[in-house]
Specification:
- Pfam families: FAM177.
- Keywords: Coiled coil.
- The structure is a single chain.
- This protein has 2 helices and no strands.
- It has 100 residues and is mainly alpha-helical.
Length: 100
């Protein structure tokens, strides 16, 4: 019991139990610092106009080449199907002539 005017003092935990709490504070401070730097970096990048990729022209060219290659492949497939249909029709005509 504490006498008048005296406050009861709480016992301070041993240092090893403070280690976990200290590590928690370090992680929290590091995470906060990272988030602040990330936020400010994004704002500064927007202010200085460095938000678009440096190699956007190369990305656009690559996408255009892929689109052209896809279109060429589709055209080849259409031509091949057309050729198969003509051959099948020619074979049917030939069979019908030989059956007559």
């Amino acid at each position: 019991m504490a006498s008048e005017g005296e406050e009861e003092r709480e016992e301070v935990a041993a240092p090893e139990s403070w280690l976990g709490y200290g590590w928690h504070l370090v992680k929290k401070a590091g995470h906060g610092t990272y988030n602040a730097a990330h936020y400010l970096g994004g704002k500064l990048a927007h202010i200085f106009g460095v938000t678009s990729p440096d190699w956007q022209f190369a990305i656009d060219i690559h996408e255009e080449m892929e689109m052209k290659a896809r279109e060429e492949k589709e055209e080849e497939e259409r031509a091949f199907r057309h050729l198969q249909e003509r051959r099948a029709k020619a074979l049917r005509d030939l069979e019908s002539q030989t059956n007559d």
